[in-house]
Write a structure and sequence with these properties.
Largest sheet: 2 strands, antiparallel
Shape: elongated
Radius of gyration: 41 Å
Number of strands: 4
Helix content: 40-55%
Strand content: under 5%
Number of helices: 32
Structural class: mainly alpha
Oligomer: single chain
C-alpha cells in the first residue's frame, strides 16, 4: 500500500504491463476487500493460511457490516486489504475471489481496465458490453452524423428484438439508440445519450447495457448493434432525426380533428385513450423522441413504446393511412419533405423472433347501419334515386335507416340536398292570438286542435309576433326584484311571489311541518320549494330544527327575509295574492 501511495501508481501483479494511477488501484483494492469480507461471512476459502486462525477469529462475520465504505474494524481492514493485494498479484485468484460475490448489476466503471476484465470473467462474460461495442472497428463517420440518422428511442421493431428481459421498454429504447451511436467510438454511454436525449435517465440506461452482457439470449443483440451501426454508416437515411427532434408538436392531432377523422371513416373514436395513443403514435414517428419529451399540455400517462407499438399494430388500414397523411401534412407545413417513418430492415441484421404473428386491426364501426350504405354501389344508388325526386324520408323507409343517415350518405356522395319542406299547417294569426292570449290555452291544447306538434305552434306564435308566456324554466327576474342582486336570484321562474310568501310564512314558524300546515300543503313539497330557493340565492336559508331548538334563519336567510318583506310591502297586488289561488294556478 505504501509503495502504491509513494509512487502514485500500481506496477505489480495484473498492472505490470500497464501501470495504473494510484486512485483507481485503490478503488480496485476496496472492491476486492468487500469481496473478501463476503467470503469471510459466508465461510469461503480465502486461500491464505498464513493469516492464522487467531487473527480471523477477530474479524467480524456480519455481512451487513462490510459496506462499500470500508471494513467494520481495523482487523477486518487488515485481512481484507491483504487478501485484495494478494488477488491483484494473481489474476486467476482474483477471479475465484469475485465469482459469486458480485451482483450481476454491479457497476464497475470506476475500476481499472485490468480488473474490469477480471470482473467480467467472474460474471461469465468476455468483456463489458460497452467496452465490446466501443472496441468495434473504428468508423470514419462522426458520431454526431450517426446520431442524425438515429431516433432518440430506437425503432420499435428493433427495440422489441433487442431489449433484454426484465427491462422497461422505454428505458431500453433510449439505451439501445445510444449504444448504436457510441459503437466503434470513444464516446461514453452518457455522452452518446446527450446527442439524442439530454433528459433520459442515465443510470437506468447504463443498467440496460449491463443486462446486455448476460450470456445466452442477449449475446446476439450486441452483434446486431454492431451490424446496425455499420449499416447506418454505409447508407444514407431518408430522415434527419436531429432536425425533427426539436419540432414543437403541441398542435399535433387535436381531439376535434381526431373525431372528424373517425367520423369520416365511420369508426369509434374511443373515450380518450385512442386519441392519446394516436397522437403518441404520430409524435414518436415524427420526432423519434420518448414521450417524456411530449408537450406538457398532453396527457401522456401510461404511454410507452410498447403500448404505442401495440396500438400501431392493431390500427385498421384506413385509420393508419389517414394518420400518415396527418403526419405528412404536419411535416410539410414546417418545410420538411420526408416520409413519416422509416427503419432499417431488421431481417437482414438478425433472425426475427419466432412465434410472432401480425394482428389484423379492426375497430367497431361508429354507425353500423350507416356502414351498410357506405358501399360505392349503394351510395350511387341512393344519390340516383334522390336525383330522380325521391325524398330523404322515402329513401329512409326503403333502406330501413334514419333520415339523418340517408342525408349523411347523400352529402358524402356530393349530392346537393334540397332544404326545407312545404308548410303543412296554415294557421290564422288572429285565431291563434284569440286561443293563446284570451282563452289562455297551452301550446299542447292548441296543437291538439290543429293536429300538429306543440313546437310547431310555438313557431307560429313567434312568427305572428305574439309574446310567449314565461315557461317553467324562465329565469327572468320579477320586476319586484329591482336592483337587488339577492332578489334577482330569488324572484325567478314561475309563481315567484307565491314562493317568496311561503318562505316568509315558514320564517315565522318553529319547523317546516307547522309552516306547511298553515299554508295547507305537504311538508315535503314546502321543503323542496325552500331548498330550490336556497339553491337559487346561493346558500341554506334555515338552520334545521332540533330537540328543544326551533328552526331559525341563517344570515343569508335573514337578509332575504328583510328584502322580500320590503319588496312585497311596496306592491299591493303581491300582498293580495292568496296562497290558495296561487296553488290552484300552479
Amino acid at each position: 500500500m505504501m509503495q502504491i501511495l509513494s509512487t502514485g501508481e500500481g506496477r505489480f501483479g495484473i498492472y505490470v504491463d500497464a501501470p495504473q494511477p494510484a486512485i483507481t488501484v485503490l478503488e480496485d483494492i476496496r472492491l476486492l476487500t468487500r469481496a473478501a469480507g463476503v467470503a469471510l461471512c459466508d465461510g469461503g476459502d480465502l486461500e491464505m493460511p498464513e493469516l492464522g486462525a487467531e487473527l480471523l477469529t477477530a474479524v467480524p462475520r456480519d455481512k451487513h457490516e462490510w459496506t462499500w465504505a470500508g471494513p467494520p474494524t481495523a482487523a477486518g481492514g487488515a485481512v481484507g486489504t491483504t487478501v485484495a493485494i494478494a488477488a491483484l498479484e494473481d489474476a486467476d485468484r482474483a477471479v475465484r475471489l469475485l465469482t459469486g460475490r458480485l451482483a450481476v448489476s454491479t457497476s464497475y466503471t470506476g475500476q481499472t481496465p485490468q480488473l474490469q476484465r477480471l470482473i467480467a470473467a467472474s460474471l461469465g462474460r468476455t468483456r463489458r458490453p460497452t467496452l465490446f461495442l466501443q472496441a468495434a472497428p473504428a468508423s470514419d463517420v462522426n458520431p454526431e452524423d450517426r446520431a442524425r440518422k438515429v431516433p432518440a428511442q430506437l425503432w420499435d421493431e428493433w427495440t422489441t428484438a433487442l431489449t433484454p428481459r426484465r427491462i422497461n421498454s422505454d428505458v431500453a429504447a433510449s439505451a439501445l439508440a445510444a449504444a448504436v451511436v457510441f459503437t466503434g467510438t470513444r464516446l461514453t454511454h452518457s455522452a452518446a445519450l446527450a446527442l439524442l436525449d439530454s433528459t433520459a435517465p442515465i443510470r437506468q440506461v447504463t443498467h440496460v447495457m449491463r443486462e446486455l452482457g448476460r450470456p445466452a439470449a442477449e449475446t446476439p443483440a450486441l452483434a446486431a448493434i454492431l451490424n446496425l451501426a455499420a449499416y447506418l454508416d454505409a447508407h444514407e437515411t431518408p430522415i434527419d432525426y436531429r432536425r425533427r427532434r426539436g419540432l414543437d408538436c403541441t398542435g399535433l392531432l387535436p381531439e376535434e380533428e381526431w373525431h372528424h377523422l373517425c367520423a369520416r371513416l365511420n369508426v369509434q373514436p374511443g373515450a380518450g385513450a385512442r386519441h392519446r395513443l394516436a397522437r403518441a403514435h404520430l409524435y414518436r414517428a415524427i420526432t423519434g423522441n420518448s414521450m417524456r419529451r411530449a408537450p406538457e399540455a398532453w396527457d401522456a400517462a401510461g404511454i410507452s413504446p410498447r403500448t404505442v407499438m401495440t396500438f400501431t399494430k392493431t390500427l385498421p388500414d384506413s385509420v393508419g393511412h389517414e394518420l400518415t397523411e396527418v403526419g405528412r401534412a404536419f411535416l410539410l407545413r414546417r418545410g420538411i419533405d420526408e416520409p413519416l417513418s422509416w427503419a432499417p430492415p431488421l431481417a437482414t441484421h438478425m433472425e426475427p423472433a419466432a412465434g410472432r404473428s401480425d394482428t389484423v386491426g379492426e375497430w367497431a364501426t361508429a354507425r353500423p347501419v350507416r356502414g351498410a350504405l357506405d358501399t360505392p354501389s349503394r351510395s350511387r344508388e341512393l344519390v340516383a334515386q334522390y336525383g330522380e325526386g325521391a325524398t330523404t324520408y322515402e329513401l329512409a323507409r326503403r333502406t330501413g335507416v334514419s333520415r339523418q343517415t340517408v342525408s349523411r350518405v347523400l352529402a358524402d356522395g356530393n349530392s346537393t340536398l334540397r332544404r326545407g319542406r312545404p308548410i303543412t299547417f296554415v294557421i290564422d294569426g288572429d285565431w291563434l292570438r284569440e286561443r293563446y292570449e284570451k282563452e289562455g290555452m297551452t301550446l299542447r291544447q292548441i296543437a291538439a286542435l290543429v293536429g300538429c306538434s306543440a313546437p310547431t305552434i310555438a313557431h307560429r306564435i313567434q312568427a305572428a309576433g305574439i309574446a310567449m308566456r314565461p315557461g317553467p324554466h324562465d329565469r327572468t327576474p320579477h320586476p319586484l326584484a329591482g336592483h337587488s342582486r339577492l332578489l334577482q336570484r330569488a324572484l325567478v321562474g314561475r309563481h315567484t311571489i307565491e314562493r317568496a310568501r311561503r318562505f316568509l310564512i315558514a320564517a315565522q314558524h318553529e319547523n317546516v311541518r307547522a309552516a306547511a300546515a298553515t299554508i295547507r300543503t305537504t311538508q315535503s313539497s314546502l321543503s323542496a320549494q325552500l331548498a330550490r330557493l336556497g339553491a337559487d340565492v346561493g346558500g341554506d336559508l334555515f338552520v334545521p330544527a332540533a330537540r328543544n331548538r326551533p328552526m331559525r334563519l341563517t344570515p343569508i336567510g335573514e337578509r332575504l327575509a328583510r328584502e322580500l318583506g320590503r319588496a312585497l310591502a311596496a306592491d299591493p297586488h303581491a300582498q293580495a295574492t292568496s296562497p290558495t289561488e296561487e296553488e290552484k294556478s300552479s
